[in-house]
Design brief:
The structure holds three protein chains of three kinds.
Chain A lengths: L6 E6 L11 H9 L4 E7 L5 H13 L4 E6 L2 H14 L7 E5 L1 H5 L5 H21 L6 E4 L3 E5 L3 H12 L3 E5 L14 E2 L4 E2 H14 L3 E4 L2 E9 L2 E8 L13 H5 L3 E3 L8 E3 L1 E2 L11 E2 L14 H5 L12 E7 L1 E4 L3 E3 L16 E3 H8 L20 E8 L15 H15 L4 E6 L9 H11 L3 E4 L2 E7 L2 E8 L4 E7 L1 E6 L1 E3 L1 H10 L26 E3 L9 H19 L3 E4 L4 E3 L9 H5 L5 E4 L4 E4 L9 H5 L5 E3 L4 H11 L8
Parallel strand pairs in A: 1-2, 1-3, 3-4, 6-7, 6-18, 7-10, 18-29, 20-27, 21-22, 21-27, 22-23
Antiparallel strand pairs in A: 5-30, 8-9, 11-12, 12-17, 13-14, 15-16, 19-28, 24-25, 25-26, 31-34, 32-33
Helix pairs in contact in A: 1-5, 2-3, 5-17, 6-7, 6-14, 10-11, 11-12
Chain B lengths: L3 E7 L5 H7 L5 H7 E5 L8 H5 L6 E7 L2 E3 H13 E7 L1 H5 L12 H10 L14 E3 L5 E3 L3 E6 L9 E3 L6 H17 L16 H4 L46 H4 L17 H12 L10 H8 L5 H5 L20
Parallel strand pairs in B: 1-2, 1-3, 3-5, 5-9
Antiparallel strand pairs in B: 4-8, 6-7
Chain C lengths: L1 H7 L10 E6 L3 H10 L8 E6 L7 H9 L4 E6 L10 H19 L6 E5 L5 H16 L11
Parallel strand pairs in C: 1-2, 1-3, 3-4
Helix pairs in contact in C: 2-5
Classes of the chains: A alpha/beta, B alpha/beta, C alpha/beta.
Chain lengths: ~650, ~325, ~150
Amino acid sequence: MSEEKRIGVFICRCGRNIAHTVDIDKAIEEIKKKHDVAFIEENMYMCSDPGQNLLKEAIHSKDLNRVVVAACSRDMHEPTFMSATKEADLNPYLLEMANIREQVSWVHENKEDATNKAVKIIESAIERVKMNTPLTALEIPVTQKALVIGGGIAGIQSALDIADSGYDVTLIEKASSIGGHMSQLAETFPTLDCSQCILTPKMVAVSHHPKIELLTCAEVEVVDGFVGNFKVRIRKNPRYVTEMCNMCNDCVEVCPVVVHDEYNMGLSPRKAIYIAFPQAVPAYYVIDPKTCLGIDPLICSKCAEVCEQDAVDFDMRGEIMEDTFGAIIVATGYEPYPIESIGEYGYGLIPDVISGLEFERLLSANGPTAGVIRRPSDGKEPETVVFIHCTGSRDPAKHLPYCSKICCMYATKHALQFKHLNHNATAINFYIDVRTAGKDYEEFYKRAAEEERVIYIRGKVSELLQDGNRILIRGVNTIAGEGVELHADMVVLANGLIPSEGTKEISSILKLSCDSIGFIKEAHPKLKPVETAISGVFVAGTASGPKDIPETVSNASAAAAKAITILSHKTLERPPQIAEIEQTTCGKCHTCIHVCPYGAIYYDSTSNKVLIREALCEGCGSCAAACPSGSIELKNSTYRSISASIKALLKGEEMAQ
Amino acid sequence: MAKLKTAIVLGATCAGCDVAILDLNEKIFEVDDLCEFVFWPTAMDFKIDDLLALEDGEVDIGIYHGAIRTSEDLEMAEILRKKAKVVVAFGACANFGGIPSLDNLPYDQSLFDLVYEQVPSMDNPQGTVPLEIIELKSGDELTLPKMLKDAGALNSVIDVDYYVPGCPPMVPLIEKVVDVLKKFSETGTLPPKGTVIAGEGTLCEECGREKPEQISYHAFFSPQETKKIDPDKCLIPQGIICMGPATRSGCGALCTKMNVGCRGCMGPTVKVKDHGLKMISALTSLLEVDTEEGMTEEQLEKIVQRIPDPLGTFYRFTYGSSLISKLHSDKEDK
Amino acid sequence: MTSTMQRSHKEIKNTNPKIIMFLCRWCSGKGADLAGTSRLQYPPNVLPIMVNCSSRIDPQLVIEAFLEGADGVLITGCHLGDCHYKTGNYKAYKRMTILSKLLEQIGVNPKRFRLEWISATEAAKFAKITTEMVEDLKYLEPYRKGGKR
């Protein structure tokens, strides 16, 4: 930078706000002495139109090429003065502000001290502005297409909202059908809508939407790139059944392999060729390669033989596809807490102790018992059922520390539905607290407890034992302050929620930060509930923590709206004050790569260079401080510039001896 | 062409630099062809008068190794500057103050007391300590050079033309120096003043150990504390303190090739003012970098305190010329 | 040693200590602004430099400040866990902890160098810490510009 520096300094009086403690005339006199200051002026209110005009005119008439505005905090008016500078055809990054209000005039009373400090702060801004270089905001082209990972209700809602706004969406689901856990539910609290009835139309809408590309049996393998342009590699696993399938079910009849049906929580059998559930989307069958006799027509090809549509294709192979997306929504959901780990409840050993989702399947009209509650042990209808809340939840010593948020409500719903099926039956709920913070939730609970006579016992169950063909429940009633011992025909454990395997996998692929349990962390728990720490990646639904359906859906719509804020632009603008690497001195020690919290620095083996992904750099400067060879600088906040600021602030400080 | 008149002067040095010159093997004959040694007390019997007898500027190449520790070192450096056309600071001590400068700490008398009285191996009931002036019975005086307050690099007392870092400078560097001298003898040209005759980059570029893209580690180990150091992988992720990332190249990464972390004898690269601080900043940044989030101050404090003696670790060779060594010690305020 | 320090505490040795204070843009900088908006008073001896993050501060800059004649250096940032850049303040904490250990080895009084977390709302804490540090430094000799030589 050999050009002559012509710096203009503009001091704001801010009415009396600054002028009553800072002697403006004296400050001007001091700063005039500085070399390179070509023009200095004060104004009553620099942020007013006359103030801004003064700045603009002076830039032109005095041929200024650097500007310092001494006024308030940069948070307050930096944008104002940057745009004024720009309007005067001067690069706005050649402006520096000196805060002589919040950090001088308002906090000091002694006029001489305040004036001295103001002069030093202005001088340090002058030193900084001298070293600034003109910068241009970074423009990043945006691929106007979103990727939604996970086909549960959250992913479905996000995909539909984005597609309805006119943007292309790819929805990817690991399983053979979308629908997620919601498709397994019988009815939903607090309105007792049939879950399938409200979910199926959305699933169908996904499959028909011209803007949605649906990939099932597919997984994300690698994500590269950054906001605006994520390069994603997707693995599509073979389905072995083509779209020609007309769901005639002939293949299922002949398939010799019988395994547990995951959709029915193992309470019923299925074949190796099957459809996840009747309303599955996409609506065609799939072969489970793990249990099929070998995807080898020489061993068994019964299904292919009976298929009139020739839809069975044993030669189908997995494919890898790559695509670019502007934004990503992670909606990979939850899994029920594995309650086998709670030894005292005997789940898995006592046949009639079942999980919440298993009970849900028993309640379902399309479930293994066609909606009749039957004991897994003997098929009899139970007369007394005990529902245990907080199974695995709120137990920091042994299990999960947090509240599952939904198990109070779904255990209440279970008890209520059970009573609806058999009014003379007994439903007993053991609870720690009944938490009903949702619209109409308290009313729902009151209805169960008061109208339907569901019994609520406050206390924990300490053990479950098989006693003949019944179950002995030992626990405590903490309101009565006494032990409880009773018998039931069935016990339903209301499991807590943990992040799904998919949530864990995708957070490691995307390098998202997670809490100690594995739920994805929001960028801010209150103000950025669907953003993640990675710009352009959003999280919807239970991947970020337990949620009920209404919250999941609104969360998913919020994530969609946030994704659209990116997709709706052809380019993204980012501040240009980012890090840069001086290649001639860089030792390629890789220190900076892991210091960067955004993955913005990488080693390029083809050029043997450490490079910066400009779009990812947020400008914190941590790499610059860490670089052991001093090869990284932050644009317009360089080491030299900070060092010059220090010198200016301490100018005239002589040793006192 | 006449041989270059060469003087090698010793300051506070272990004379390892002299041995390093002899390590040149057959290339030593080239040195003999090029140079006429007019002063080199380690190799031949020279006295100060031999140097003083020369005309000012008569010496073509003056090589100085060792730190400026005593009044004698200072005097010799000043004489060399007067006699030599070109002065080369040779070795870590002359370049940065080296190990002798590690005692520039505000120990006052305590260091002296430790060495002459307190160390367990000392048997000194009379409390005899070296004195600057000793009066003999004959009435004559014997003098010892005075200890300067601080030990420093050569360029803290005289103008230096070229720098050859290392403890000692490694053979490839000395070969480079010989080549420079050869060119000077043949063409009369020298590199620009201030040139550091060494690599431009950092040790990492010479080291050849495989580095993970993302470096992190959880604790420091002394080499003897670890089970096994992988000889092919970067030392830092293995918890071995290695100054390589902040250290100038040119030595051929001999230490890391021997499974020992770089100790930084080549000093910092051109953009760095304080070798140790930069290495501290880099190394502490990577300590527990993938697990630090969510830690408390106490936890962080605990892991960072695993770095024992930062001064001795990160300033082994460069303390005398570092920024921090210029700081005033409050302990000296009375 | 300690007894000398305690004795020396009684007399003011430096009427006008100067402190270089690094502010981060997102927490302590906003806290400093809030101190202004709330009209809290603190001594004018603290001279602010705003950087984006406490992790921007190269330890060399701290030493430069001392060599330029600062009597103290105060680094401020977001509380752990609140860093705008996720983990910048963790890096700053680790670096500056070793730096203070180093300064201790050299014999620099620990009162001269502090690292404090100040949130955007902690204006009172901001005023308290700056006032406290200025008071502490009054009882130390003025730090010598240009170091010891």
